[in-house]
């Protein structure tokens, strides 16, 4: 079982010709309200990839409808708290004609849920289970500690990156997911230097990965590179996978789709190379559709793409 302590947001998505500039008022071409949040997206990706996943999180009691998408995908939703005195998290998302996005996030219940919302479900965890966690929910430190106490394997996607995350002890983390920007921010904070210094020192993704391993020698790292693909390294073996060349429409949930599919493949017993290939294929399908959770592909689509390109 994968226990995902993750955010649940109501996404307000606006399609715009370009990302709004300071002082500019811009009319949107369309508007949609959909389920989002890094946590919810990753849970749906895991479920659609065929793995067993329980979502741990919180919403405002008036928004019970948002859990239906998680349940429909196949996730367990019994550990989602419906809070009477909190508003659900939400995000204002702009998506432009180049498929780039800009997001304003309100944490709501994600950032204010009671501690036992996290610790009680994790107390059921065993050494055969995984914790997956991002940085959009309260009680991150406690979730990591509880999972470590239960003997669970831990996967961490420290997004959004903050100074608090950089100060966390990640000794119990088995698998770290970061994109290039997050990796640079994490290293800069750990080393007390600015981002420009890390960028100058690490001119290639391989150099960036090597520097990550100096800080996290016992942790396997996955470095996502957007249109350039992804790297995996456990300190001994380094693997890479190029991205598919596709017409990207919306990149909002690409990273979350990648993480979810990599996790699902890992718990199924796939090799890191197989997990990398499946995750890159899933992300390629995701970016060709609009939306966050709605753009995450089913595993049969991913398998079909892999078979067609072998």
UniProtKB/TrEMBL annotation:
Requires a divalent cation, most likely magnesium in vivo, as an electrophilic catalyst to aid phosphoryl group transfer. It is the chelate of the metal and the nucleotide that is the actual substrate. Its cofactor is Mg(2+). GO terms for cellular component: cytoplasm. Keywords: ATP-binding, Carbohydrate metabolism, Cytoplasm, Kinase, Magnesium, Metal-binding, Nucleotide-binding, Potassium, Transferase. Residues 5-298 form the Carbohydrate kinase PfkB domain. Pathway: Carbohydrate metabolism; D-ribose degradation; D-ribose 5-phosphate from beta-D-ribopyranose: step 2/2. Pfam families: PfkB (PF00294). Substrate binds at residues 9-11, 37-41, 136, 256. ATP binds at residues 179, 224-229, 255-256. The active site is at residue 256. GO terms for biological process: D-ribose catabolic process. It is found in: Cytoplasm. It catalyses: D-ribose + ATP = D-ribose 5-phosphate + ADP + H(+). K(+) binds at residues 250, 252, 286, 289, 291, 295. GO terms for molecular function: ATP binding; metal ion binding; ribokinase activity. Transmembrane segments: none annotated. InterPro entries: PfkB_dom, Ribo/fructo_kinase, Ribokinase, Ribokinase-like. Gene3D superfamilies: 3.40.1190.20. Belongs to the carbohydrate kinase PfkB family. Ribokinase subfamily. Homodimer. This is Ribokinase. The lineage of its organism: Bacteria, Pseudomonadati, Pseudomonadota, Gammaproteobacteria, Oceanospirillales. The gene is rbsK.
